[in-house]
Amino acid sequence: MSSASPILHYALDGDGPRSLTSAVQERIRADILATRLLPGQKLHIAGLAKQFSVSLAAVREALSRLVADGLVQAADQRGFRVSPVSLEDLADVTRSRIEIEGLMLRRSIELGDQAWFNAVEATWGTLKAFPHRFPGDDPLHYDEWAKHHNAFHLALVSGYDSPWLLRFRNLLHEQSERYRRLSIRRDSGRDPADVDIEHAAIVDAVIRRDAEAAVAALAKHFTATKDSVAISSGGFLEADRAV
Asked: Measured between alpha carbons, how far is 5 from 27 in angstroms, rounded to an integer?
């Protein structure tokens, strides 16, 4: 394997995964979430091994891990492909996020200490100060907004220490982010100011430690996002059912 392999450099980076398999996994994950690899697209092990200058075994193991995360599907005798999308799946992902993050937010409000509250305020302040972006904007700008957006929502539920629920939450967040990026930027009737208002309603309820209001505001926010993605997808989600 060439010493110039970008995957090898990533694997040896102290801040990155410590194995080639993990490095390949994260690279493919990033390509799926950024929609460089599209729903239903076949993932050719030999081609990916050549692209990343790694072994077939490393790619196969990386894809198997992504199957467990729901980003890749495996079929007997047919290999791997990027998991498909649909309106039904988008609705299911949204309902599941509401259930899991709603539970975690409720418990965070009940149990969260001052450090948790400070984290919510800090991430909310950072997100407010960063211009809202859509997936169709400059990808680098959207990546930054998405990072701050995730940090804010993660802080909201971080007052409740449940590694299993956190894992499920993170998987569902990734799926939601994939749908958001797949949506084509069109007029969905949702103004960036609406998103800020939805976030502010959640924070206001958190400040008052009103769990019912906070969970209701969170559910409203996730539902509005789902509806916006469905509208701005331009029929992409319906068409992908046949993949």
From this structure: 13
Q: Read off the amino acid at residue 34.
A: A
For residue range 156-178, what is the model confidence (pLDDT) as tens digits? 999 999 999 999 999 999 999 88
pLDDT, average across residues 56-60: 93
Check: CB of residue 158 under 8 Å from CB of residue 110: no
**SS3 category, 72:** strand
How far is residue 219 from each of residues 109, 133, 161, measured CA to CA in Å?
16, 21, 21
Length of the chain: 243
Confidence of residue 106 (pLDDT cuts 50, 70, 90): very high
Angstrom distance (rounded) from CA 137 to CA 135: 5
Query: Distance (Å, rounded) from C-alpha 134 to C-alpha 119?
Result: 25
pTM of the model: 0.81
Confirm if 87 and 229 have CB atoms less than 8 A apart. no
